[in-house]
Specification:
alpha/beta; Nucleotidyltransferase, domain 5; 5-stranded mixed sheet; 4 helices; 45% helix
Length: 150
């Protein structure tokens, strides 16, 4: 991997888990090896995205993000449902707002996997709701990072 002209750093990637009322956020470490869950951005209504996009732009600047990986919720039979269409619309907004490339990444089962990790870690049900989206974002990003290392 090239160092992109910055001393000792590689491409920084942001992982997003886009939901109807939340966006889970994760970022990869400076070496591009692991994904850290960052935060869950919440909004009152599904289509009220101005503050959500503004927060994502702030994180992009703060972490010098170069690529966004957006969880893509295909149906189990590989078809595209309503949630996936909304995710495509969100991708288009992100591209327009940030000018960055946005990779749609198959996220099937990541929320289930995130929930299992939290249960195994002994996190109480009411606390799981607060963190599950950012854990799912980290799993999406980890999966993407694994694929580009191969």
């Amino acid at each position: 991997m090239g160092d992109k002209g910055r001393k000792g750093s590689v491409m920084r990637i942001l992982g997003l888990d886009y939901g109807s009322k939340t966006v889970g956020v994760a970022v990869c470490d400076a070496l591009g090896l692991t994904a850290q869950p960052m935060e869950t951005i919440t909004r009152k209504e599904e289509n009220k995205l101005r503050k959500t996009l503004a927060r994502i732009e702030t994180l992009i600047a703060e972490y010098e993000i170069e690529i966004i990986v957006l969880g893509y919720p295909k149906n189990m039979d590989d078809s595209i449902g309503e949630r996936a269409k909304k995710t495509e619309e969100f991708r288009d907004m992100l591209i327009r707002r940030t000018g960055l490339p946005v990779v749609l990444w198959d996220e099937r089962l990541t929320t289930i996997e995130a929930n299992e990790i939290l249960i195994e870690s002994g996190v109480r049900r009411e606390d799981r709701k607060k963190v599950i989206d950012k854990i799912a974002a980290a799993l999406i990003l980890e999966s993407y990072l694994g694929s580009i290392k191969e």
